[in-house]
Design goal:
Number of helices: 13
Distance between the termini: 43 Å
Low-confidence stretches: 1-6, 253-261
Radius of gyration: 20 Å
Strand content: 15-25%
Mean pLDDT: 93
Largest sheet: 7 strands, mixed
Number of strands: 14
Order of helices and strands: EEHEHHEHEEEEHHHEHHHEEEEEHHH
Helix content: 25-40%
Length: about 400
Amino acid sequence: MTAIASGLLRRMKIAAEGCCHGKLDAIYAEIAKLEAQNSYKVDLLLICGDFQAVRNWRDLACMARPQKYKDHPDDFHQYYSGEKVAPVPTIAIGGNHEASNYMWELYHGGWLAQNIYFLGHAGSVLVNGLKISGASGIHKDYDFVKGHHEKMPYSPSDMRSIYHTREYDTRRLSLLSSPHIFMSHDWPQNIDKHGDWEDLLKRTGQLKPSVRANKLGSPPLMSLLQSLRPKQWFSAHMHTRFEATYPHHDEHSASEGPALGSSSNSSTRFLALDQCRPDRRFLEVIDVDVPCPKDTVSISFDPEWLAINRALNPWFSRTQAQPPLPIELEARNMVARELEWVNANIEKDENGDIPVEGWQRFVMTAPTLGSDGDVKEEQPPAYTNPQTVSFCKMLDIEDKVNL
């Protein structure tokens, strides 16, 4: 660990990784190599999607991916079964190549395996006081305004639409105060204009039509970047490394009302990372000062995010139709009231935190590889994950995931 005084971790080394594609062993090996070469210890790993949390053959049947890439479940099943344990605390989001059935079990976030935490379809946590927020999936205009209607067994269409970002999830994220780090799979739209886009096109010619038409990336993510103003933004998806600096001007209108917190960041550093393959630039290690020094890495719930979930859960739709969401000022007032409820009703530890493990602990819900009878190309039943049940119980909200 990086900067320790009186036994407390005051600065963390955080590694960010692009598309995982199930290659956990290679990612952790690369971190170990960097640690040996540079005589440091990585404290936290962030994985920006295409995680591919495949537990067994039947999970592969729920992944939108060409059949030729479904000949083996890759590494994750060994971490799920407990044969291996992640050597670095890991936070992941989803992309557009996922075992979507497992990600849906943990829509609100939860442990995919020991020491590997999924932020959910959208989410925000505190790591030693450091606010890390994120959005899973990719943007498609035609699904953005729909509800989360997909149910198992997934049709070929549902297998893709389930990882398309929704207005409901983006709106919840917009009500946060500024995070230090934001994670997404997709890029914010036109972020390429704030870096060396000409070099980007030289390296990735397939992006040229989108760049030329000013359509590269997700419009809702750019709106979040402008409103949340995080210090650092990590993305993946395009299978290339790309850096940009987005300058923040006076982008808030007076009609939006005050946010729960404000950001003094004058710019956001954007970094997209490649997929995990040899000779690709898929990993970046940064140093970050932490607000709450502790003797180890600790993941806690973000009280703001809990309040947002309590406030907007009535608008969480499980049909194609998404009811109109509350206007900005009304939503922020609702969140402020629910934050009072969170502070009054959810027990905190001696540090004033709500540790995730106080409510969520990893549990296997599906058979491990080899114990599932080697059934292939057949979708599994829907599993109820106790972590989701516990999350909803903590907030005293209806569990709409397990309808």
